[in-house]
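Dear colleague,

As promised, here are the two records you asked about, laid out in our usual form so they can be pasted straight into your sheet.

NAME FIELD: protein one
SEQUENCE, THEN STRUCTURE:
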Amino acid sequence: MTCHDESLEGTRHGHAFNERTPAAAQGCESCHGPGRAHADSGDPTLISRFTQIRPADVSAVCTTCHNRAEHALWEGSQHDQRNLSCITCHSVHAPQSERGQLKARSQIALCSTCHRNVTNRQHRFSHMPVREGTLVCTSCHNPHGSTNVKLLRAGTTVDESCTSCHADKRGPYLWEHAPVSESCVTCHEPHGSNNDRLLVSKLPFLCQRCHVTSRHPPTVYDGYLLNNSQNANKIYGRACTNCHQLIHGSNAPSGKAFLR
């Protein structure tokens, strides 16, 4: 350490009392390989420098220790396929976060360096409580790899991920609502929306994406209106969920129409 600063000693990797850390094993050589030739000559090319080797080789060094379930699916993951490595997000010697050895002060700050279009949605009217600190990006996603392309922690589909918290929407139901069975994101934007309840569109226009005609008494929805009809209900512009409240599915005898 006569040439390099001692910043590592203040990090988790520098805790000599933890047998799993480099400090408790071979020190710098645990990650950078044999260093005698480098130390004797001062030649920087005679030591493994993470900024000079392939991303896959960097991650291979890290996963020799970080090989538990959290990191088991890194190889072949979405981030790995895009030539990212562990040091893209983490700093071994000079982390800025209190947890996770991150290169930014918080998860959302780190993730937004690449996923700006997603994190910007956190500023919309309806959003996941990430800015408030209730959730973080890794509440739903495992950046180190998962069994699905969206890096979701729970299950293999969006629905399985959502219902890991929203268990009351899981079903199965006697009467299934097709869009719900297909995917929660058919109707919801999980990262943030300018509509209530993370909806991708306002009601009733969201419903009209599928229900282009109605089963109600003649209304403007049908494209025609019967003059002097006592049943010509004026429902235009009102929320469908005023009546159809069980839109996620129903076990009620009259549930085919998802009525309360």
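NAME FIELD: protein two
SEQUENCE, THEN STRUCTURE:
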Amino acid sequence: MPTDRYDPQTIEPKWQRIWAETELYRVDLHRAQRPFYNLTEFPYPSAEALHVGHVYTYSGADTFGRYRRLRGDDVFQPTGFDAFGIHSENHALRIGRHPMELTVENTARYRRQMEQLGTLFDWAHAVDTSHPAYYRWTQWLFLQLYKAGLAYRAKAPVNWCPSCLTVLANEQVIDGACERCDAAVVQREMEQWFLRITAYADRLLAGHARADFPSTTVALQRNWIGRSEGAEIRFETIGGPDITVFTTRPDTLFGATYLVLAPEHPAVAELTAPERAAEVQAYVQQAAGMRELERLATSREKTGVYTGAQAVNPATGERIPIWVADYVLVSYGTGAIMAVPAHDERDYAFARAHGLPAPVVIAAASAAPDAQRPAQGGDERGGGGAYTGEGVLVNSGPFSGLPTAEARARITAWLEEGGHGRAAVTYRLRD
């Protein structure tokens, strides 16, 4: 047919009607010889119509589904509407309509548009998350998780959008602003429901051996889970509560010259000296407006304030200062770290910025005979920065001369015997 005779207003509705009447894309799942499940995310009807982002998402999935269909698969490609969320509610509030009425209208409009795209969706199996027939099962599922001890309430810092009145994932915060409305995002502590996915962290890691995933996907997931083996070490403080830290390098304990608490750590207020309270409180408030990604950026200057409190290093018996700094996150480990400037890059940068000592307690195996003395920072070891590799312990009392791997086990056992610590595992993955 010549292109100048193609009339989409006439031809496309005709074939869309035929496809609907013949249920062209409906699959008999009970009799399917080669069933293939092709699922893409549901749209949430929180606007007047679909936008090009929806088309971008569905065209890719639809192309793949058609490819499988041409190869002889019985492709089941369902869809639905994520219509029971905060975005739909906020849209209704903006235009002054009842969410239920608006959702019915929007889902009908979205469906018409998705049908006009000619997608492979099986509309006989479409779902709407705002229907009681659907959400009764999400409620049932939640109750099973609750009964199994996998759902619980707790307080935690979150990214809060004061305009959308909702919590945002890190990926939804762009340059400190909400990706949907551009309002400035703030950090807020909120009590909320958590699902205990961390209880499955080791099973998820073990499952990679049986999953047919690309190596890059496995690497991303392993990093996302972030399993870390190490030790929890208890530091006594002078006149305050004990501070427990998690470290993957207990072999560096003799080089810990200060502690750092996350600004949200519950012990900050109790440990802060009265004469430093105003400065510490101002710093805590400043950190509350920052995202985690900002706080962890390696290019940032390492800021912090001294609380006026001191702890005792259980290995050396020396008093060490307790600081508050935003490069420590309350959500990882215990929300507190022992800082070893000579052997951690972030600690080294902080120590250089604030004039804190950095004694060497690990030397590369080849350099061990020449490293049996304290040092102040990386430059006195013949190079800048921290030495973070493996080697041999130096300046570490009875553990000097041990290879770092052996020293980690020996120092952890010594801490357990003395009641100052224990072996521990932590995860980057969060509930």
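A couple of things worth noting about protein two: The CA atoms of residues 301 and 349 lie 8 Å apart. DSSP finds twelve helices and 18 strands in the chain.

Best,
R.
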